[in-house]
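#structure-requests
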Amino acid sequence: MKQQFDIAVFEGDGIGPEIMKPTLEILARLSDSGGYHLEFNTVPAGAAHYAQTGESLPAASMAAARDSHAILLSAMGLPSVRYDDGTEISPQIDLRKTLTLFAGVRPVRIFPGQRTPLKMPDGKEVDFVLIRESTEGLFHTQGRGEITRDEARETLLITRDISEKLFRFAFGLARERKARGRGKGRVTCVDKANVFRAFAFFREIFDAEAAKNPDLIADHAYVDATALWFVLKPWEFDVLVTENMFGDILSDLGAGLMGGLGVAPSADIGLDHAVFQPCHGSAPDIAGHGIANPLAMILSGAMMLDWLGLRHDVPQMVADGTRVREAVETVIAEGRVLTADLGGSASTQDAAVAVMAQLDIA
């Protein structure tokens, strides 16, 4: 009997539903032929839902997310729909905080044939993971900052509890990547400990966790230097771990190295729950035209398969996650079926069908 996994699906705003549809189709076809079954439960949330109902994340949707094995979330938010305080509708951040999804995982990979603004030296390969703490840091007072006539203040929060969990996750991921032959077993703490006491505290906790993992390499880098090295020598990195705002900025830089947000997947992972979503926004200007790039959403689905397979010891799911990633990479490298953001003219469905063809499930 196949093992069943319940997946809470948030279709998102703008192009969200358009890129979610082929992703679910690919995942469903894989599960039909694999030794597992994915049961999708689509629940409402987002800016469009808020505009209609006054709720951005209904209690029933949060309950469904909490009760699921994993959460698949498409692009959320609309620039034209905001809360009364002027901030954008962002249920994805509410999910992170409520479910304590402290580890924002942002893979950065440049493979042969991929478009990149970098001039890559021969024999070098970029394949690293940026881990962004996703529940506190400078996002701690989101929507609750203090504003007077002459001043505005936001509070950065770093706690020992979350930092310890974050660093345990980072070293565990580095060990897993090394075992798979995809990393050097190196974890870099990215901070600004030379200026802020909060980051000196962050680094101290990192060093304590590093001491428990003597089989792995641990080092430090200031965030400004890291941004420079992303451009000059990104092939040197393996696993990087950093504060929320720093990670928010560096993850977009990492997406730029890969050719754009259209190929940048992500996950937000906690001890018991995980959300998988593309890094890009909802692009309302192209919504409904059938030209959105679905690859980041599909790659996020691949990350979900990998996480579920490792967590529940289902090797077929891990293998399928790898197959999906490699199929997307092949489509990009061949360059025949690319959407406009990648220099082509393919439709959303064209790109998805090309991935299915590589997987032999079209």
